[in-house]
Design goal:
With about 230 residues, this protein is mainly alpha-helical. It is about 65% helix and about 5% strand. It is built from 10 helices and 3 strands; from the N terminus they run αβααββααααααα. Strands 1-3-2 form a 3-stranded antiparallel beta sheet. Helix 5 runs antiparallel to helix 6 and helix 6 runs antiparallel to helix 7. The chain is elongated.
């Protein structure tokens, strides 16, 4: 399931966390799956201590729950929790885009730079695509200049819910060009210093993501069809 960990620049705990997270995003480790510390340590060919640290981090982020001695189970995230997460993202990221628009071209340049750096990630993989998208969205919130909004953004994404949410949306079609295209309406609105348009563009973008889950047929016109 997981490749053994070789010596590298990251700590073993960080590497274990990264491997387990990547497996969750790819669907290799599915919701409801049981994670046993000893088995993971053997699979990754490392000691139990870094695996324990990685599992504790995943538990703090809300991705897994304790299930017996030295074991955890991957949390199942239901439709209502996904909906509420997207609503929270609209509140945080939509308003942040409105604030960022006050800085006009400077804010747009910062977001374009985050998009340009997408090549630092393996964007054709679920984990790389997730990290690249997170970096772009974080750049919008950072451009707002509101530290509290940025803390809220980090807390929401850091809880781990977004990992599995994004895994559900990933279709193996993400690329640097697609990342740039999907975020262009936000960049244009920021460059025009149009707060209304920036918030609307961010909201529409997030609702596209929600629509990918087909959570509720009754959403109707309230959710923009995914493009």
């Amino acid at each position: 399931m997981l490749e053994p960990i070789a010596n590298g620049r990251r700590s073993l705990a960080d590497e274990a966390y990264q491997r387990i997270t990547a497996a969750m995003l790819s669907g290799t480790i599915a919701p409801g799956a049981r994670l046993v510390m000893d088995a993971l340590a053997e699979e990754l060919e490392i000691s139990r201590t870094p695996v324990r640290d990685a599992l504790r981090r995943l538990e703090q982020e809300g991705l897994i729950e304790p299930a017996g001695r030295r074991g955890f189970v991957v949390r199942e995230i239901d439709a209502e929790e996904i909906r509420q997460t997207y609503e929270a993202r609209e509140a945080i990221e939509g308003y942040a885009a409105r604030l960022a628009a006050r800085r006009g071209a400077l804010a747009a340049a910062e977001v374009r730079e985050a998009i340009a750096r997408a090549d630092e990630f393996e964007i054709d993989t679920p984990l790389g695509s997730y990290l690249a998208n997170r970096a772009v969205h974080r750049s919008v919130v950072a451009a707002s200049g509101n530290r509290i909004l940025l803390d809220l953004f980090d807390d929401l994404w850091g809880r781990g819910l977004a990992h599995q949410i994004y895994a559900g949306c990933f279709r193996g079609e993400d690329s640097h060009a697609a990342l740039r295209r999907k975020h262009q309406p936000i960049v244009r609105a920021l460059k025009a210093a149009d707060g209304d348009a920036a918030e609307a563009a961010m909201t529409a973008h997030l609702r596209d993501g929600l629509a990918l889950h087909h959570l509720d047929a009754n959403l109707g016109a309230a959710v923009t069809p995914a493009r």
